[in-house]
Amino acid sequence: MATGTVKRVEATSNSGLIITEDGIEYSFNRGGLKGSLTFDDLFGGERVQFEIETTKEGARAVQVCKVSRS
After folding, report:
1. Whole-angstrom distance, CA of residue 13 vs CA of residue 4
2. Among 14, 18, 49, 56, whose CB has the most other CB atoms within 10 angstroms?
3. Within its chain, how far is the Cα of 54 from the centroid?
4. What is the pLDDT of residue 70?
5. pLDDT in tens, 4-48
6. Pair 42, 9: CB distance under 8 Å
């Protein structure tokens, strides 16, 4: 799984953007959130883990979930 930070969430378009520590940005959509995570739980700045899926439009984040704090 990759790790990054939510850069922005756009509820009107049901999408958002995650940036990794090395500066790569991955888009995600409402359907890419995992489990009980909802757009209402994301405001930007949250640390998340995700899988990378390659589509004809490019790579995107799926199975997005918050990083557990220990």
Report:
1. 21
2. 18
3. 14
4. 58
5. 999 999 988 999 999 999 999 999 999 999 988 888 888 889 999
6. yes
The angle formed by the CA atoms of residues 15, 38 and 25, to the nearest 5 degrees, is: 40
Residue 49 in contact with residue 35, Cβ under 8 Å? Answer: no
- DSSP codes joined into one string, 12-68: GGTEEEEEETTS-EEEEEGGGB-TT--GGG--S--EEEEEEEEETTEEEEEEEEEPP
Residue 10 is classified by DSSP as E
Q: Is the pLDDT of residue 54 over 80?
A: yes
pTM of the model as a whole: 0.89
Q: Give the residue from 4, 8, 67, 11 showing the smallest Cα distance to 39.
A: 11
Q: What is the pLDDT of residue 39?
A: 83
